[in-house]
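ok so i was messing around last nite and threw this chain in just to see what happens. nothing serious, just curious
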Amino acid sequence: MEIEIKPLFCYLFLTSYLLSISISAAESSLAVATSSYQANAPDCVYSVYISTGYIIGAGTDANISATFYEASGTGIRINNIEKWGGLMPKGYDYFERGNIDIFSGTGPCLKAPICALNLTSDGTGSHAGWNCLALEVSVKGWGKNCTEHRFSINQWLALDTIPFSLTVLKNDCGKKISDGSGADLHELYAM
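result:
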């Protein structure tokens, strides 16, 4: 009987050992697949901070959009930045006097750092005019260095006060750029 137990014991031991090796191999291939997926992830994370002025009436209820450009003119447009990536608590009132609002979301990675901005209000809501002090954007993608840029705005986006426009264009690229579409859109000029 001893002879029969030893072979059975060896068989069970060998089977459990082989099973653990195959599980370990499956786990390592899963880790490789996960690592490979992350390395090929196409999207970047965009984090945006927007500072509203302290002037009485500086806040707005309008929808705000932003288009970020790299020097080649390639860009990413975020329509209604609040809906796209508002991070403040539920019930928070964005773009109010003295606020620094935080937004974050994903989008296609640009090939170069952001250096130009088109910031636009749609002029809706009971307080359509908006005084924006600054906007700061940072971008991070898998395997890519984090880039950030701060735009000093210090301007009204309003139709009832100077400069009588709902759009502000900022170009810190050091050269004239356009959005590259060939469409009749705003061109950004180096300042």
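not much to say yet. The two ends are 93 Å apart (CA to CA).
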